[in-house]
Amino acid sequence: MLLKSTTRHIRIFTADLQADQLVPAEDKLTLDVDPDNELLWNDAALQQVYRKFDELVASYAGADLTDYNLRRIGSDLEHFVRSLLQSGQIAYNLASRVRNYSLGLPRLADEGNDSDHLVIR
Predict the structure, then answer these.
(1) d(CA 5, CA 73)
(2) What is the biggest distance separating any 2 CA atoms in the chain, rounded to whole angstroms?
(3) Domain residue spans in the chain?
(4) Per-residue pLDDT for 6 more than 90?
């Protein structure tokens, strides 16, 4: 049975990705970060999300994989993404087809910064 946790920027499935299809797998979790590309990511920030995901999954070692536990991991990751945005490690993507400032209202980057995106300060 496929379990999933879906937040605005984090999606977790008890599945394996095969040929661009999710195949249910009880022993594997698949993480989809920011599927709507609302945020601008760099590799360092994305790696932080993956490490946090691994840490959260490890904290549930030995526990039954339930819908509730999966949603808690997803919710904790969503809060972590918000902390990355607030610290300026990632930013809103103004070229995104979706503009939902669910992680906080943006403001323009500091003067003198030729940035094409908004940041949280």
Answers:
(1) 8
(2) 52
(3) 37-119
(4) yes
